[in-house]
């Protein structure tokens, strides 16, 4: 029997390349550790949780009862940016650090956000259909109504790691930029050529509004009807963060009633969206299946990061990305110094 038991649900995860834990084990191979699978159900997890030294969280929700059943656990590690699948508060109360991958696929998400911005602005999907449907002559008249991109304004809601990389890309296109983020110092914004602004100012003055807020309880349904009413009628809304941060019926209403001009969405309130969702039939909305972070390096990079975090904590060292947001008086987690993750998810 190995010294360290790392418990993980069998089956579903992000991977499309098959099973196995070779990448995770690279950092663990000299530690007498093994990754043990359990059924991907709450009952299955509970039956195996008591003697687990660590949890590799994937494929399901990790609830308070599941976390409370962990008697020996030293760390819960996620192979994603978002941590909303784990009850982090419950883990904190048990003194268990929760780690994520806050900086592993930032470049890919930033590329995707910029792609959605450019494609919605230049009406790429509609132009493609015009060619395929023998409507060639309609293409130029449509784009003659589209403003020049240079000099337009991109507004960020939250300015974490992904938003900062989007800003680098957008600057090359000559976009003016501003951001609302009460937790980021003004000097950080200025380093990226971004102007600090209130949420109201970002909404009312931006030609593109890019959402990067993580899915925390406080951010649930953050953008509502009143916010979409503040936006320009010509504005385009981009979301590569988390779907639940937006009141989706309000977004749909804003698009249907033309309070805003269009949207580029990688995330939805319910995923996958119901086929009756009006967003699926709107011409000036570009959608992708919550895959902004995906690339050929996605699985190897995130799996290696999980292995590294597990190895660090099991060997008594600091994790690279502890996301526990609070240290309550008397909590056994007081020995850990929380590390602020990117405040934008997939953000």
Describe the structure.
This protein is an alpha/beta fold. It folds into 2 domains: 4-104 and 296-335, NAD(P)-binding Rossmann-like Domain (Rossmann fold, 3-Layer(aba) Sandwich), CATH 3.40.50.720; 106-287, Rossmann fold. Helix content is 32%, strand content 14%. The chain contains 13 helices and 12 strands. The chain has a 7-stranded parallel sheet with strand order 8-7-6-9-10-11-12, with helices on both faces. It has a 5-stranded parallel sheet with strand order 2-1-3-4-5. Helix 1 links the parallel strand 1 and strand 2. Helix 5 (106-121) packs across helix 8. The longest helix has 17 residues, at 298-314. The protein is elongated, with a radius of gyration of 22 Å. The two termini are 40 Å apart. Pfam families: 2-Hacid_dh_C. Residues 114-292 form the D-isomer specific 2-hydroxyacid dehydrogenase NAD-binding domain. This is C-terminal binding protein. Keywords: Oxidoreductase.
SSE inventory with pairings:
Elements: E1 4-9, H1 22-25, E2 33-38, H2 42-49, E3 54-57, H3 64-68, E4 76-78, H4 88-93, E5 98-99, H5 106-121, H6 124-132, H7 139-143, E6 153-157, H8 161-172, E7 176-180, H9 186-191, E8 195-196, H10 199-205, E9 208-211, H11 225-230, E10 236-239, H12 248-256, E11 262-265, E12 285-287, H13 298-314
Parallel strand pairs: 1-2, 1-3, 3-4, 4-5, 6-7, 6-9, 7-8, 9-10, 10-11, 11-12
């Amino acid at each position: 029997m190995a010294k360290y038991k790392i418990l993980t649900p069998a089956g579903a995860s992000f991977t499309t390349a098959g099973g196995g834990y070779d990448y995770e084990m690279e950092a663990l191979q000299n530690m007498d550790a093994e990754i043990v699978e359990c059924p991907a159900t709450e009952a299955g997890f509970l039956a195996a949780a008591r003697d687990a030294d660590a949890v590799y969280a994937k494929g399901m929700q990790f609830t308070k009862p599941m976390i409370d059943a962990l008697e020996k656990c030293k760390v819960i590690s996620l192979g994603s940016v978002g941590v909303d699948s784990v009850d982090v508060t419950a883990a904190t109360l048990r003194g268990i650090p929760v780690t994520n991958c806050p900086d592993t696929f930032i470049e890919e998400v930033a590329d995707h956000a910029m792609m959605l911005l450019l494609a919605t602005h230049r009406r790429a999907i509609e132009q493609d259909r015009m060619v395929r449907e023998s409507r060639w002559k309609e293409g130029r008249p449509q784009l003659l109504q589209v403003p020049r991109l240079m000099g337009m304004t991109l507004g960020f809601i939250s300015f974490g790691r992904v938003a900062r990389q989007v800003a680098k890309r957008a600057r090359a296109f000559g976009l003016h930029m501003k951001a609302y983020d009460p937790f980021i110092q003004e000097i950080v914004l200025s380093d990226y050529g971004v102007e600090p602004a209130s949420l109201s100012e970002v909404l009312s003055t931006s030609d593109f509004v890019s959402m990067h807020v993580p899915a925390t309880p406080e951010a649930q349904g953050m953008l509502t009807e009143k916010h979409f009413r503040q936006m320009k009628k010509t504005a385009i809304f981009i979301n590569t963060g988390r779907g639940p941060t937006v009141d989706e019926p309000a977004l749909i209403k804003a698009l249907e009633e033309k309070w805003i001009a269009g949207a580029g969405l990688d995330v939805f309130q319910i995923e996958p969206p119901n086929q009756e969702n009006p967003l699926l039939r709107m011409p000036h909305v570009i959608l992708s299946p919550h895959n902004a972070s995906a690339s050929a390096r996605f699985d190897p990079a995130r799996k290696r990061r999980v292995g590294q975090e597990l190895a660090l904590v099991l060997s008594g060292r600091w994790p690279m990305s502890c996301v526990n947001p609070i240290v309550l008086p008397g909590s056994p987690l007081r020995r850990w110094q929380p590390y602020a993750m990117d405040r934008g998810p997939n953000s």
